Amino acid sequence: MKMNRRSFISTVSxxxxxxxxxxxxxxxxTIRIGIIGAENSHTRGFGKxxxxxxxxxGVSVDYVWGETDAFAKDAMEKGQIPNQVRDPEEMxxxxxxxxxxxxxxxxxxxxxxxxxEAGIPSFIDKxxxxxxxxxxxxxxxxxxxxxxxxxxxxxxxxxxxxxxxxQIDAIENINQVVMYGPCxxxxxxxxxxxxxxxxxxxxIYLFGLDVDRVRVTNNGKNSSAxxxxxxxxxxxxxxxxxxxxxxxxVETDEGIQQIKSRLEKTTPGKNYTDMVTMFTTGVEPRSHExxxxxxxxxxxxxxSVNSHQWEEV
Length: 313
Description:
Layout: E1 31-36, H1 41-52, E2 59-65, H2 69-79, E3 83-84, E4 97-100, H3 108-117, E5 122-124, H4 132-145, E6 149-150, H5 159-169, E7 176-182, H6 192-195, H7 197-207, E8 211-218, E9 223-229, E10 234-240, E11 247-252, E12 255-258, H8 270-281, H9 288-307, E13 311-312
Parallel strand pairs: 1-2, 1-4, 2-3, 4-5, 5-6, 7-10
Antiparallel strand pairs: 7-11, 8-9, 8-13, 9-10, 11-12
Helix pairs in contact: 1-2, 3-4, 4-9, 5-7, 7-9
């Protein structure tokens, strides 16, 4: 019997030590997830999380569509996903929630649209889209249909980032910021859109949406970007090529300070918990404005890669 997804109650809490307390679906209901896209490791990871580790009892990945048969079979084997579809729309009427997970964001919204139009809550992996105009139209459609939709970087939407935000809010007179993280501005999967969200979204989670203009600098081997907020704060983004990790430093009147999370690792992460909570309650964990602002910054950065100039957001 098809569930009433808004009738669910979910509870997530953290103890003082930072350990995860069990998430509850409530009653005996289930959520059947379908995934569109299997080219990267994320789909296997979702299968492991829900089907093997059973991190959210009652929630399972039941269907997958892959860009190739080999991608789909690999995800099915490693994530114990029982069913493959040849056409994503075969999942309509069979699933209660959707995850879209292509490597290139230009495929995301067209893949999700039939499901959002049908009222299926949908998580769209980063990047949400490839063009802001397309994203605006899509989110307007989702709003009119009353279908919950969200998208975020797992680096940004984490307990660690939310703890860093608390620290940032307690610091006065931040003059400038330096953030480090991997990014290939010439990636075949959309250039800066591919890994850029893992830097841009933490930035706007920590420092807000009020970005004025951006500029990218590159010498063919290494690259960086400058972001100017309307209050005059400068954020320098260093796109690392030898280090896989993310760091944030701020300059204040007291000197340079690294902002590190003070939390112990928790499982499942906030990204998974908030995604599933949206599936069960219909409450979106992130505003549409935040999603679109992140995409607008990425689009301006892409323009700057080509123009070598400052570009307005």
